[in-house]
Each structure stands twice: as structure tokens, then as C-alpha cells.
Amino acid sequence: MSPAEKNILKSLVAVAWADGRMESAETSVIEGLLSGFAASDEEEQEILEYAETRRTLEEDIPVGDLSDEDRELLFANAALLVQADGKETLSERRVLIQLGLLLGLEQAVVNDIVESVRRTSVRPRA
Fold first, then answer.
1. Residues 6+ apart with CB under 8 A from 18
2. Distance of alpha carbon 39 from alpha carbon 5, whole angstroms
3. Average pLDDT over residues 9-33
4. How far apart are alpha carbons 66 and 73 in whole angstroms?
5. What CA–CA distances, in Å, run from 114 to 53, 66, 77, 120, 123?
6. Helices in the chain by DSSP H: which ranges?
7. So what's the architecture of 3-120 in CATH?
8. SS3 12
9. What is the pLDDT of residues 75-122, one digit of tens each?
């Protein structure tokens, strides 16, 4: 796993904690990304242990270490994370807005990513 991928995963942990708790669906998304990023067993353990402690957007996202591409990838995965449980709350929308601002993304990019994720997310049946 590259340092950029590790930064993205740690940042997603902060996004997951933004509502004050880490849900199992959010943990599953992070575990899926660990697999997608070909994390070693040690890297996986490091990230999962990191996720056990509450994190914040302002303190735990290394914005200065993220390239423009990393920022967009982080935001896209954050939008997916918000959809992990099949519903998007007002609080989660606020987190995405805050994250977009923190990452310095243009509003059009934020809107495009969020709408794309909403269109492609599978919603559980009621």
C-alpha cells in the first residue's frame, strides 16, 4: 500500500467517526478498500487499530500530504462511505460539505462526485 493510499484510508476513518461512532457498514467499506489497495496484513492491522479511536476531520486528515488526485479519490470514497448503510443523513451531508471545503475541492467537483455516487449506490429495499 502506498503512503497516499494509507493517508486516504486514515482520512476515511476520520470521515466515518464524524458522527461520533464507527458503524459496521463503514468498517466494511474500509476493509474493502484495504483489500483494493492490496494492504499487507500488518498495514491492515494498523488501519483497523487506528479506526478504533475517534478521529476528526480537522485533526486527522493530512491535507498537505494529499495530491489533487488523492483529494478527489478521498472525497469519492467518503461519499461512498456515507452511502454504506443505505441512507444519507443531514449530518452526513454536512460532513461531505465540510470535507470538500477542507480539501479545497471546487463545488462543481463535489456536486459531480456526490451525484455520481448517489446514482450508483445500491439502496436496501424497505
1. 56, 57, 91, 92, 95, 98
2. 9
3. 90
4. 10
5. 27, 20, 10, 10, 15
6. 3-17, 24-36, 41-50, 57-60, 68-82, 90-103, 107-120
7. Orthogonal Bundle (1.10)
8. helix
9. 999 998 888 777 778 888 899 999 999 999 999 999 999 988 888 875
- Picking from 66, 62, 60, the residue whose alpha carbon sits closest to that of residue 4 is 66
Rounded Cα–Cα distance for residues 113 and 119 (Å):
10
Residue with cell 448503510: 85
- Degrees (nearest 5) of the Cα angle 80, 86, 89? 85
How far apart CA 123 and CA 21 sit, in angstroms, is 21
Global confidence as pTM: 0.86
CA 26 to chain centre: 9
Of 49, 66, 39, nearest in space to 78 by CA: 66
CA-CA distances (angstroms) from residue 64 to 38, 48, 115, 119? 24, 23, 26, 31
